[in-house]
Amino acid sequence: MEQINTEILTRCQGGDKTAFSIVVSTYQRMVWSLALKMLCDEEEAKDATQETFIKIWVHIKRYDGSSSFSTWIYRIASNICLDRLKASRRLVPLPEDESVLREYATTGDSQRQLENSEWVAILRLLADRLSDKQRLVFTLSHLEGLDSTEISSITGLDAKQIKSNLYVARQTIREQLKRLGYE
Amino acid sequence: MNKTIDDILNGMKGQQPTPPDADLLTEQIMMNLPDIQLDATDEEEAARQQQGGGKAETIINIVRAVSSVAAIWLVGLFAYSYVTTSSPINDNEKVIAINHTSIKTNNSSFSSTLNVVYTNLKEKNKIHSYAMVKNN
After folding, report:
1. Minimal CB count within 10 Å: which of A1, A49, A130, B83?
2. Would you say residue A40 lies in a domain?
3. Distance from CA of A15 to the nearest CA of B (A)
4. What burial class does residue A60 get, using C-beta atoms within 10 Å of its C-beta: 0-12 exposed, 13-18 middle, 19+ buried?
């Protein structure tokens, strides 16, 4: 994961917007990725990304270096996504989501990069029955590839809670895929 | 060829989608940043703490005043009760009054009260015997 150097951070803490634009361009994709996977809506993800960076800018003086800067950003982004999930209506899979998944599943290329709309459709279908917490742990661990320590620092959950949430999330997604005819 | 469940899940692992127009999004974020870097929450918190401190000080002052008044009133009450119970109306009641107060207030002073009663009776007898001698 990309990390920003301390000089840029110090400049940001001093109110330097030019330095902050480097922070935005460095971490924008990371925040967008989490927001899109959590919220399954491009417009919502865009708004959540903006909100995250504004919050980072406002509270950047509070960053004390006790965790990595990316972990701190993930924590802010996660809280914003959870708040938005709570405020919005439940994500209901659309009939066309199944055909998007089928198309992805029939492609021979295992390294194919998913388009934003494909992410939205597939996750809306697979993570339909997950709780917000399970969705967050699954996204951070399985989709973003973070380790248990980082997830613990982001979510405030201990290792046991992370493990159980991840297990339930994986089982639920597997059951959903089985129901759709995959083995 | 259909992918298995594991293939689907593994294929999604570690992939990061890209925002549709990253530059435009960066621009929008930069435009929406507040001009002055103020930690509003910190300021509010400080103000709240200051307000809380002021409130606590006021409460302490009120409690201080009330307890001072109560202490003065209690001292007055004790003094008044002491004066009214320990001032005899005449000499005949002196012994009874002294005796009464002593028993009421302190059991350990019971023996000294008896001494007072004994001395008073002795004095009366002295006067009585002096009068008898004089008459004779």
Report:
1. B83
2. yes
3. 6
4. buried
Q: For residue range B59-68, what is the model confidence (pLDDT) as tens digits?
A: 888 999 999 9
What is the rounded distance in angstroms from the CA atom of residue A132 to the CA atom of residue A59? Answer: 25
Model-wide pTM > 0.80: no
Check which CATH number belongs to the domain holding A60 and give it.
1.10.1740.10
Tell me if A60 and B37 make a contact (CB, 8 A cut-off). yes
Whether residue A27 is contained in a domain is answered as yes
Mean pLDDT score of chain A: 92
**ipTM rounded to 2 decimals:** 0.84
Angle at A127 between CA A122 and CA A130, to 5 degrees: 175
Residues ≥6 apart with Cβ < 8 Å to B125: none
Is B1 part of the contact surface with chain A (CB cutoff 8 Å)?
A: yes
- Cβ distance of B20 and A116 shorter than 8 Å: yes
What's the domain range around A38? 1-90
Residue A21 resides in a domain: yes
For residue A152, give the 3-state DSSP assignment. Answer: helix
State the residue for tokens 């003065």.
Answer: B72
Instruction: Report yes or no on A34 lying in a domain.
Output: yes
Taking the C-alpha atoms of residue A83 and residue A116, their distance in angstroms, rounded to an integer, is 22
Residues of B with CB below 8 A from A25's CB? 22, 26
Closest CA in chain B for residue A111: B11
Task: Name the domain count of chain A.
Answer: 1
